[in-house]
Amino acid sequence: MSCRFSWWKLVTAFLVCVSTCVHASADDDRPNIVLILSDDQAWTDYHFMGHDTIQTENLDRLAKQSVVFRRGYVPTALCRPSLMTLITGHYAHRHGVTGNDPSPKYAKVGSDLHNKRRAQLIANIDKFETLPELLAERGYVSHQSGKWWEGNFRRGGFTEGMTRGFPEPGGRHGDDGLKIGRTGIEPIKTFVDQAVADKKPFFLWYAPFLPHTPHNPPERFLAKYNKDGRSPSVARYYAMCEWFDETCGQLIDHIEKQNIRKNTLIVYVTDNGWIQDPKGRGYAPRSKQTPYEGGIRTPILFSWPAALQPREREELVSSIDLVPTMLAAAGARIPKDLPGMNLLPNLRTGGKITRDTLFGEGFAHDIADVEQPEASLLYRWCISGKWKLLLTYDGEVNRYQSTHPRKEKRPQLFDLIADPHEMKNVAGQHPEIVSGLATKIADWYPVSKRKVLTRFESSR
User: Fold this and answer.
1) C-alpha span between 236 and 226 (Å, rounded)
2) pTM for the full model?
3) What is the pLDDT of residue 200?
């Protein structure tokens, strides 16, 4: 355990005490903040997003109470780097956690070297002021539940939590925290009740292991979908989506029961997409771990009855925007180096979000070199208006990418309005669009150490 971690534990505790004395109650300028994170769910797989089978009555209700961005995105289509972005506000190539695990190819799992590299990855979080730490300066208490990779919950600045974390036994991606939702939400209820009793504003990280595999839904859900000739794997996945929705309803209902819903900001996003393979238990191509819409697109919701009028928005937004926006809602300090936008003024007024381009990246599941992100770089991408450009690189793939090779190595350009499922690569018809967007990508994240696999880039 690093010295920096121990020092920050003391600093965070001190700041919470000081701020709590200054702010005696959770007043109107400090809303409670609840971040709900779906785990492995496609952007299409909600009733409010148009799915004609999956029932999501609780998230439908939340959407009616929210500013809804149907074209939301995550910069990275893999859970750990995506979650690290949501806790730090930085892109994966910046925060350094580009994949889920150090590659076992270079250090056997369980060996001293592999464990050293795991610890080195976790230590990346110490380089940043995390969302809970920044909220603590405003007197917030915080709770972690569900998916969490970066060691003990205190490592992320949470005052309370469920995950023991590496190097504790089973401490990989959540350990005890993964029980939340699947076995009820009692730890969250206890935390919320105490925060309300103490008159403290709170931040809640709700990242249940849902609808993530194992797809083992309760029979009451499975019976609804296991019919009409639907494959068993798809039926199980659909049932998992509804099970996740039920847990979201339990959480929101408890907040309403405590009479704090009006001044609670609920933010919803998924960590990455998932398209169920109808022939097996895994995911289909062009979903998780890819930069296609099935991997990176997600609805993003902001619901705050005291401050935001529900409406549908057409603009592009990214999960990179969530940290500065939540900090702004709390009146907290926003680090100057955050690359995301503070959307709060636009959410309040309905004013148009003037953004030119969204950016993202894709890396291998297993990290080839924990000190050189480009060793595992597979994609860089951007979206500007209706256009989406994917560039492919020769970063080292691994066992988890073996069924989804980078078959198309040329630039891929899609018109997302005319072709939302990216069936037709039109890069050859629009070389000027490819050139302009590739330049934007290079300005955003310059690649210096990896040979590009695209004819366009190699000819520049």
Assistant:
1) 8
2) 0.91
3) 98
The three-state DSSP-derived secondary structure of 405-456 is CCCCCCCEEEECCCCCCCCCCCHHHCHHHHHHHHHHHHHHCCCCCCCECCHH
Residue 443 corresponds to which amino acid?
D
Closest CA to 446 of 456, 454, 438, 434: 438
Nearest CA among 247, 305, 303, 210 for reference residue 58: 247
Domains, in order of start, for the chain: 3-356 (3.40.720.10), 360-458 (3.30.1120.10)
Mapped onto helix, strand or coil, the DSSP state of residue 228 is coil
Backbone angles phi, psi at 235, to 5 degrees: -60, -45
How many other CB atoms sit within 10 Å of the CB of residue 213? 16
Q: Which residues pair with 270 in a beta bridge?
A: 38
Q: How far is CA 341 from the centre of its chain?
A: 16
Q: Which H or E element spans position 389? A: strand 387-392
Q: For residues 425 and 413, what is the distance between their CA atoms, to the nearest angstrom?
A: 5
> For 288-307, what is the mean pLDDT?
97
User: Cα separation of 138 and 33, whole Å?
Assistant: 13
Residue of 357, 270, 249, 221 whose CA lies nearest to 44: 270
Sequence-distant contacts of 353-357: CB under 8 A, at least 24 apart = 353/313, 353/315, 353/316, 353/317, 355/315, 355/316, 356/384, 357/382, 357/383, 357/384, 357/437, 357/440, 357/444
| CA atoms of 401 and 405, how far apart (whole Å) | 6
- C-alpha 255/C-alpha 261 separation (Å) is 6
Residues 90-103 have pLDDT tens digits of: 999 999 999 999 99
**Where do the DSSP E strands lie in 26-86?**
32-38, 67-73
Residue in the structure block whose two tokens are 């979650």: 83
Helix (H) or strand (E) run with residue 238 in it: helix 232-257
| Residue whose entry in the numeric block shows the structure tokens 């409010």 | 48
Is the model's pLDDT at 50 over the cut of 80? yes
Q: What are phi and psi of 168, to 5 degrees?
A: -65, 155
Contact 74, 360 (CB under 8 A): yes
- Residue 298 banded pLDDT, cuts 50, 70, 90: very high
At 142 the three-state DSSP class reads: strand
How far does the chain reach from its first CA to its final CA, in angstroms? 46
Q: Where are the beta strands (DSSP E) in 167-315?
A: 202-207, 264-270, 297-303, 311-313
Among 272, 278, 354, 286, which residue's Cα sits nearest to residue 319? Answer: 272
